[in-house]
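Aim 2 progress update. The chain analyzed this quarter is reproduced below.
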Amino acid sequence: MTSFDLVVRSRRTVTPEGERAAAVAVRDEKIVALYDYAKPLDAPEDVDLRDVALLPGLVDTHVHVNEPGRTHWEGFDSATRAAAAGGVTTIVDMPLNSLPPTIDEPALDAKLRAAGGRCHVDVGFWGGAVPGNVKDLAPLHRRGVYGFKCFLSPSGVEEFPHLTVAELRLVLEEVAGFGGLTVVHAEDPALLAEPGGPGYREFLDSRPGASERSAVEQVVRVAEECGARVHILHVSSADCLEVLEAARARGVAVSAETCPHYLTLTAEQVPEGGTTYKCCPPIRSEANRDLLWDGLARGVLSCVVSDHSPSTADLKVPDFAAAWGGIASLQIGLPAIWTEAARRGHGLGDVVRWMSANPAALAGMPGKGGIKVGNDADLVAFDPAADLLVDAARLHHKNPVTPYHGRTLKGAVLTTWLRGRPVDGEPHGRLLMGARR
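Predicted structure tokens:
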């Protein structure tokens, strides 16, 4: 009998071909075979989950770890602990909110030093595109960053300035030249305003859906002219869907994501002074949320990722004009999405596609994103029927700040395996530099 390092069995194993009863066999960190659920197999550890679902590890391509420089906001240890507890086995770190931002090779080296030996899941990195650093993009690409993040409106931190449309064109021409990917925070600064007061309504009115649509139109136009591949980050406004769908029909290489908070929270739910809900672009109406779900179901939006953007509690002052904008949800994105997806008639296979397979494909991560032979044995035992009461103080996020505090969600992560090894508190995540080369 062939011997394996690990076998995990589940009557609800979610594979790229669908949900089935299966035994997943692991050897040398890889999935080497899928067998019938009850087949006797030789392994020192044989885990039978019965009716608990077995999912591939999630891939979150939009995480602000903030280390080095703002490590009191978050850090590689705390962020990757939270990721593993939430069923996320691979993250890609955003280039801003750390000091220095990842906009050249010395900054990347500082990031790698900060991350080394501290990661509980696998970690890749985005580079940043800011005014004046076009010459740094190809070297960063050769070092193995997964693409380049830029803003069309102010980022909120002075060390990461936004691009004009003319500067965006220079970036897209350069990145297209070496076959890279540019990911864009798309809000048109000409349509943004200072909030007229401290409340959520004033904040929401200051960042209308039209600002997102206008920026997406500009990105699509320039990408089409340059022959560039682009990805629109954290779409919050359904006004963007028509533009994206039309562009893709014309053959423009544009994709887009949204986030758990846009799919599970609504403007109507935001309490007075509840700045844990503040993010940019903002959480919009319930009717808008329904349209985002429709866009996700139709494939106009392909990925659901956290945009985990934490801060210390003191920055969430009860004034929406002054509070830091960012939502921490890395650990609870899966149950949040499953709660709403199940209510709307979607299955675990849909959630896995949005939160694992498609983000892995976006970044270009071979071996990630699915339970199939040859992939890394990144696995998650997920009980879809469990109730989860969110207590911010019990999360692994460094600061107990989340709009989900006190909510009861459906679904709980029981065990996470990274390349066939349970994530157990010892940091054995890898830095994925050059993984797609």
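The radius of gyration is 21 Å. The chain is about 30% helix and 20% strand. These observations will guide the mutagenesis experiments scheduled for the next reporting period.
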